[in-house]
Known about the structure:
The protein is mainly β. It has strands at 28-32, 35-40, 43-46, 69-72, 83-87, 90-94, 99-104, 113-119, 130-132, 135-142, 145-153, 161-165. The strands form 3 sheets. Strands 1-2-3-4 form a 4-stranded antiparallel β-sheet, with no helix packed on it. Strands 5-6-7-8 form a 4-stranded antiparallel β-sheet, with no helix packed on it. Strands 9-10-11-12 form a 4-stranded antiparallel β-sheet, with no helix packed on it.
Amino acid sequence: SDFKFSDRESGDDLTNPFPSFTDKKINNIGFFRNRLALLSGENVILSESAQFFNFFRLTAVQLLDTAVIDLAVGGSEVNELKESQSFNDRLIMFSESTQFALRAEGGLSPRTAVINQVTNYDVTTEAAPVSSGRSLFFAFSRGSFSGVREFYKTGENDIQFDAVESTAQ
Length: 169
């Protein structure tokens, strides 16, 4: 059978626009806090809560907490998002040279979702990052060789992240 995303049932192109992945390449698909998460260009697009194939708002009059979230990472350089991994109650997203964290205070909604740039490490995006325990591992290139970095949080209250090379030996 044919796969189909949900149709727009309210509003128009101004009040309820098509998601930013429309007519663009989707680089990554994952799940985060009961939403389907798509990476396309510099944007992360999260479906309606618990409605994995709906990328439109249910109403053009109100902004519901369960509504679609479509955010760009921003920054001073172009950062096309390639990979993502849920880690430490955040969605960590990887471009080829920068890592970003999507988070929300309390429930995840269009009003509470925030993206922060957290680290700047080169990444080999052909290999997906892997979470293991309290760390997230990702590959990088060093000339004709490869290495692996261990990404981890550095604080309990004001959570920040860092990464160390775990293949230095």
